[in-house]
TrEMBL record, chains A, B:
<dbReference type="GO" id="GO:0015095">
    <property type="term" value="F:magnesium ion transmembrane transporter activity"/>
</dbReference>
<comment type="similarity">
    <text>Belongs to the SLC41A transporter family.</text>
</comment>
<dbReference type="Pfam" id="PF00571">
    <property type="entry name" value="CBS"/>
</dbReference>
<dbReference type="GO" id="GO:0005886">
    <property type="term" value="C:plasma membrane"/>
</dbReference>
<dbReference type="InterPro" id="IPR038076">
    <property type="entry name" value="MgtE_N_sf"/>
</dbReference>
<keyword id="KW-0813">Transport</keyword>
<feature type="transmembrane region" description="Helical">
    <location>
        <begin position="428"/>
        <end position="452"/>
    </location>
</feature>
<dbReference type="InterPro" id="IPR006668">
    <property type="entry name" value="Mg_transptr_MgtE_intracell_dom"/>
</dbReference>
<dbReference type="InterPro" id="IPR046342">
    <property type="entry name" value="CBS_dom_sf"/>
</dbReference>
<dbReference type="GO" id="GO:0046872">
    <property type="term" value="F:metal ion binding"/>
</dbReference>
<feature type="transmembrane region" description="Helical">
    <location>
        <begin position="363"/>
        <end position="382"/>
    </location>
</feature>
<keyword id="KW-0812">Transmembrane</keyword>
<dbReference type="InterPro" id="IPR036739">
    <property type="entry name" value="SLC41_membr_dom_sf"/>
</dbReference>
<dbReference type="InterPro" id="IPR006669">
    <property type="entry name" value="MgtE_transporter"/>
</dbReference>
<dbReference type="InterPro" id="IPR000644">
    <property type="entry name" value="CBS_dom"/>
</dbReference>
<comment type="subunit">
    <text>Homodimer.</text>
</comment>
<feature type="transmembrane region" description="Helical">
    <location>
        <begin position="388"/>
        <end position="416"/>
    </location>
</feature>
Length: 453, 453
């Protein structure tokens, strides 16, 4: 009898294993692992501190290691592989899909890579060499070569007999590809069609010859957008002469979509998107310090700008108290725009044609926001500090900075993209530099002009 | 002949249409739209300013409107629907999948909803009522009822003949579901199996009876995690008695994955994840102002804390110049931790068992970061302001704040989740409140203690 999945079934089991592991009940853990699917073991490894991973890995059935490695994120996989014998790694690669194999080999350190390649069976080595020949993040790098091809002139009955002889279809096969004698892709026949059409018909009459194929050089994110728009389950990959090279399946596309979406979020916090939640402390500290260093420079820059106004601050210490408000609001308003534009670029909604409209729109929002929050802060400050002129000064600074935030938030990512710099990574820091400096200048500068005796 | 997709084909075409639209060449635009797939027209609408959308929509063939509405995001769809006649909306819903239909109906304003339901054919109305009976974001809400079911005791040959009689399978069908006489789900037979196994075998002997089924009440994000882990293309949905209710297909799961991943990123900037890049200015301003208001309160809170030290700032204006550095570094370090934990929670890597480890790890990183950046800032400030004690004061504040940032970044999302508050939405603002206040207190407080004459 099939079992309905309990809501927390997996989480409960993971919890139990972790407890057993902590109490040193290794035999019990090994027995539990033997009943788990590779994907669940992968989840367990991802959720474990790095020390626990090493112990767990030694308790895993070695036949499953290849399947588990396929499911792990790069960081976690590298941590495990670095402690494995190259011959064992080579053995684990035997059952891997071409694309996962290539991805894993790419991430190996050079010395281990050589040893692993050396220990592989010759056919696997050829398979690896082919997969590695396509650039990373291209359609070629996420494609599999296990396509089932048929000729256009045979009848469906012949195809049906051929499939029954074959006995098995590669995982995730939803259509067979029709090729001519030069192996050029000319159409596709879905399994559903094979099952519902009369066996006397020829392949040519039933095949979908408007079926789109993917150039092997296309960027994986573009491929993912096509899959998403067209609701594909798999798609054929061809070279520039329409020769069929392989196919891309939806499971790999799901990974690309997840990674792309996470990439923006992680990059905006200055994190690597493969960053492992349970990595060792020193490794995590090192990785994150780059971003803190960049931020220190911008913070010092802001302090440097403020230092021009030290004599003003000396006379009016109340300015020091209020000085953080305007940059803070500018930062938030700017990062709203920035996030929206980065998302819009990632899903392909922003192009040459609508850029100008977008800038004008964010300029207008900045102005509207500016008026709104300027009036509010003027009221608050005038009442709090009982100083109407001070209220006007901070209102002016607020308006200027929210306007600057709107313009900067919309234009910085477009500008960075033109320079081929990842806007998700660099956008935030450039933006806060702008809103900090404009905010401080506008507030302290106006105050110096109007308030100094 | 099938065509390989040019890298920028779609974008180029969109650009051309936008240009034609702007020059008022409506007949030309209508002709171009007639040759485009619904998904491409949807992309065009998403990438157009709201005024352009209205014009475009009137040029679209009304037969395609249902398919296009299915592909649009909620915000854009609502904008278009609000200008449509309810009878036309009802007509457009005829070809929609159950789940898309329910999603659209849910997002309609009450008055339009009543009119649309009133104009629908009775069978569509029943279909809609059923789909709407499941809670939003549950498995039931993203399921379709178009399953193909077979009995366990017939031979494959009977199934094959049945399918040929049926003539067509629902889109995205990769397996048939086996049910008993009470419509209880007992297993699945893939199309690939049907094609490769001997027709004399019975369904029972070839079916996969370990196939997992999804409870109709399961949360859609959990369903998506299962699909992702198991590389499913579709999965059966059952009620609490194992009765087969429908199936979920990977195309809907892809939407869930994309939305979940975007949700975190958008929420962290205080944006709605359905936020439309090209919405009208006033609407966008209103939506974003909530977040700016919340931020203004935290900024005023920080100013209020700083105002305790106004007399200190009066004597030592250099503190005002440096006062932004420590809170800024705390904010960045904290949001790195926060982002990592929110991502970890979203992909299911963080659970009861490893929470304590995570807190300890982030505490250690905070301490390590604290020492590192405290030493650096001490050096910079001591040299810049030629004041060793001042360097020590800012170093101490930096250490304390980075430690606080690590602890707050890891514990705030865990804490918010326990209170059933979305950590992606509220986490950032709670965090900056903590790092701002700790940063200001630590810096100005220590300075008051040690530096005042």
């Amino acid at each position: 009898m099939p079992e309905a999945i309990e809501q927390d079934n997996t989480q409960l089991r993971l919890h139990e294993i972790t407890r057993a592991l902590n109490s040193g009940m290794f035999v019990h853990v090994r027995r539990m692992l033997a009943h788990m699917a590779p994907c669940d073991i992968a989840l367990l490894l991802e959720s474990s501190p790095h020390k626990g991973r090493t112990v767990l890995w030694q308790l895993v059935d070695s036949d499953l290691q290849g399947d588990i490695l396929e499911e792990l994120s790069e960081d976690v996989r590298n941590g495990i592989i670095s402690q494995m014998d190259p011959a064992l790694i080579a053995a684990a690669t035997e059952d891997m899909d071409d694309d996962d194999l290539a991805e894993m080999l790419r991430s190996l350190p050079d010395t281990i890579y050589q040893e692993v390649i050396g220990s592989m069976a010759s056919q696997d080595r050829e398979r690896a060499a082919l997969a590695l020949s396509y650039p990373e993040e291209s359609a070629g790098a996420i494609m599999n070569t296990d396509t089932v091809t048929i000729r256009p002139d045979v009848t469906l009955d012949v195809v049906l007999r051929y499939l029954r002889l074959k006995g098995e279809l590669p995982e995730g096969t939803d259509e067979l590809y029709v090729v001519d004698k030069d192996n050029c892709f000319i159409g596709a026949v879905s399994l559903a069609l094979l099952l519902t059409r009369s066996p006397d018909l020829t392949v040519r009459t039933v095949m979908d010859d408007h079926c789109e194929s993917i150039p092997v050089t296309m960027d994986e994110s573009e491929v993912a957008q096509l899959f998403e728009r067209h609701n594909w389950i798999s798609a054929p990959v061809v070279d520039e002469h329409q020769h069929l090279l392989g196919r891309i399946t939806i499971d790999d596309i799901v990974d690309v979509i997840r990674e792309d979406a996470e990439h923006s979020m992680m990059s905006m916090a200055g994190l690597d998107d493969e960053e492992d939640t349970f990595a060792p402390v020193v490794k995590s500290t090192k990785r994150r310090s780059v971003w803190l260093g960049v931020n220190l420079i911008t913070a010092l820059l802001a302090a440097f700008v403020a230092s021009f106004f030290e004599s003003t601050l000396d006379i009016l210490p109340v300015l020091a108290v209020l000085n953080g408000i305007v940059p803070s609001m500018g930062g938030v308003a700017g990062s709203q725009t920035l996030t929206l534009v980065i998302r819009g670029m990632a899903v392909g909604h922003i192009n040459q044609a609508n850029q100008r409209f977008l800038l004008a729109k964010e300029f207008a929002i900045g102005a509207l926001n500016g008026v709104l929050w300027a009036l509010l802060i003027a009221g608050v400050v005038a009442l709090w500090k009982w100083d109407f002129t001070l209220g006007c000064v901070i209102a002016f600074a607020m308006f200027m900075n929210l306007l600057a935030a709107g313009i900067a938030g919309a234009s910085i990512p477009l500008f960075l993209k033109r320079l081929n710099i990842d806007p998700a990574l660099a956008g935030g820091v450039v933006l806060t530099t702008v809103t900090d400096i404009v905010g401080i200048f506008a507030f302290l500068g106006t105050a110096t002009w109007f308030l100094l005796p």
